[in-house]
Amino acid sequence: MDSTAETLARWAHELDPDPDDLALARRSLLDTLAVTLAARDDELVRLSAELPDAARWAAVGHVLDFDDLHMESTTHISVVCVPATLAAGGDARAYLAGAGVMARIGVALGWSHYSSGWHATCTAGAPAAAVCAGIVLGLPAERLATAMALAVPAAGGVQRAFGTSGKSLQVGFAAEAGVRAARLAAAGATADPTALDAWLRLVGGDPDRVDVTGPAVPGGLAIKMFPCCYALQRPISALREQLADVEAAAVEEIRVRTPAGTVQPLIHHRPNTGLQGKFSMEYAVAAALLDPHPGFGSFTDEAVTRPEAQRLVRQVTVDETPGGDWLLDGRVEIGLRLRDGTSREASLELPPGSPGRPPSEADLAAKIADCGAEALLSEVDWTSASALLAEHFPGTEKKETA
């Protein structure tokens, strides 16, 4: 019986994308480039200046937490697979091969892996990035399996990094580790493909859950409408869609009811920085009440520490109902008690941008415009995208060859 790495490698090597797959790849490229360019003034650009291209582009692309998400695996697929593909000089097929592997490894890892504190984007991302780069390098299936095994030692990352530079940096480390593993495999390095199965079991996964049927990326990808953790997309949307007429100053008490699993990444209950605010249910509710569209300006240190925002944060109580095995399980229910004694309520199952409520072309165009990337991305493709990133984020690889 083939190992998991061999099964996935053979699927990736034989992948023949259909038009729907290619459309997803195109959308993923544009979305990832847009959110990466939106971060061009972020402090992480300086911090990551000495990292190789794949690591730097992935870290900067993730720092605003505005990149897409694969719901079934709870992984940010494109921010790993787009940079890894571009750093290796690849195209849509290489991206889709790695993205499909990442989705399937993430599903095999399961919700228990994520809920125990692992950052699945990193754990599933390192072997996936190896596939992206390996396809570009023309590796046969046997060598692709070796590349995945060589990426296993770097398949790590934890949720305690959320709200710090470490979150985006560990995503960058995963992308670069995969590219490095593919290059080593191409050079003749050896590894036991069953290492991937052994690792999956060690971190709570189940190799038997790997299923290579269906589209390149089963379930599609969720596109974020707000630049914060995906667990906050639903409560923000519920308030903005249903209670936008409520004045924040009139709110005296806020109660949020949601399945426990849906708040797994939300570890900051009294945030005082913009990064912490991206992982705070309490602050997300405050921002949704204060700001007409919680965007980049809502997740700065100054915005989070606004006196009125801090007042609202202290009024929030989160009631976690038992269970929940993905970020959109059940519904979110939000109740507001106002100073005049009246109450208002909102409830939502699917936020805009989720696979069940896919974004329109207008939604995507508005997001790209918000990122300040409208003109830059008008004619971009997989060939020109790497040059665009190298121009804005010249890393060590460009410096060494200059």
Automatic annotation (TrEMBL):
Transmembrane segments: none
Pfam annotation, one family: MmgE_PrpD_C
Residue ranges of domain MmgE/PrpD C-terminal in the record: 226-376
Domain MmgE/PrpD N-terminal: 58-196
Listed name of the protein: 2-methylcitrate dehydratase PrpD
Superkingdom: Bacteria
GO molecular function, one term: lyase activity
Family classification: Belongs to the PrpD family.
UniProt lineage: Bacteria, Bacillati, Actinomycetota, Actinomycetes, Pseudonocardiales
